[in-house]
Amino acid sequence: MRRGRKRSKELSYRDKKIINRLNSSFDTMSQLARKHGISKQRIHQILLRAKDFGYVINRPRLLARYHEIHRCEICSRILQVPESDALITKRQLSHMLNIDRQVCSWHLNQLKVLGFVSKKFATMRSDRLAKALQYYRSSSLSPSAVGRRFGYKNFYSLLSYQRKRGIVVERTANFPIAVVLEQEGRDTVPPPMSQTQS
Ligand SMILES: [Zn+2]
Q1: Is pTM beyond 0.85 here?
Q2: Do 79 and 108 fall into the same domain?
Q3: What is the rounded average pLDDT for all residues in the chain?
Q4: Domain limits for position 50
Q5: Quick count: other Cβ atoms within 10 Å of Cβ 25?
Q6: How far is the CA of 114 from the centre of ligand 1 (A)?
């Protein structure tokens, strides 16, 4: 049942995609096989063929030992994201930088391990919560108003939970402080600093 083999001069679009994935993600061969509905052996064949065509196969895992943050393009892009944008999920970060999510996480982790980036950076789990917190931080609305807007019944307790995690949810004061006090007066909001753990 062998398919007619034309000797093509290049890899097919699909095969190139697979090679790209192999080089830029942590997808295993079996995962790629499943994704494309082909066997693992077939992936292996594609890999060999790609090598014949002069493609370089560089699995990120294999590169780990030689990873140098100051020379790494992905790391330098992550480092360019301001720390004030810490309230994001890893998904949002990888979207923002247009990098594969797993690849992005891997480099982010390297940066964290070596202390280049705060451990709290991009640790939000939910896109919606991240957006709500970002919004809260830059707006002058009360926690309950922000909660309503994003569909959280008890946004205030989410805020204190994040503070306990050491996440800075305090607002960047771009507006007259009087407005904040007035609007927050309706809720029982403690002074911003009282919740931070030491
Ligand atoms: Zn890197």
Answers
A1: no
A2: yes
A3: 81
A4: 13-61
A5: 17
A6: 11
